[in-house]
Design brief:
This protein is about 60% helix and about 0% strand. It is mostly helical and about 90 residues long.
């Protein structure tokens, strides 16, 4: 089994889920029962920003490493694809 790259991954995921659920509960209270229009706008704006962030993260991580500026040269200076070179004479 290979170790995970994120230390304490379960704790990070659990804390993230708790934070999202807590803010969702607060958001429901603000939107459904609060009479403060500014707070409603702030909460809705926060969820919009969260959606943009989630979409940007998904788009960035799904295309990461796929866009290349140039073709690998195959030299030791290009770590993408190293082809053994003949010794210089």
């Amino acid at each position: 089994m290979t170790p995970t790259r994120v230390p304490h991954l379960r704790i990070v995921v659990a804390a993230t889920i708790m934070a999202i659920l807590g803010y969702a509960g607060f958001s429901l209270w603000v939107v459904l029962w609060s009479q403060d229009a500014a707070m409603k706008g702030d909460v809705i704006g926060t969820w919009k920003s969260f959606a943009v962030l989630a979409f940007g993260f998904w788009l960035g991580s799904s295309s990461a490493g796929k866009a290349k500026d140039e073709t690998p040269t195959g030299t030791p200076a290009d770590p993408v694809s190293v082809v053994p070179q003949e010794p210089a004479q």
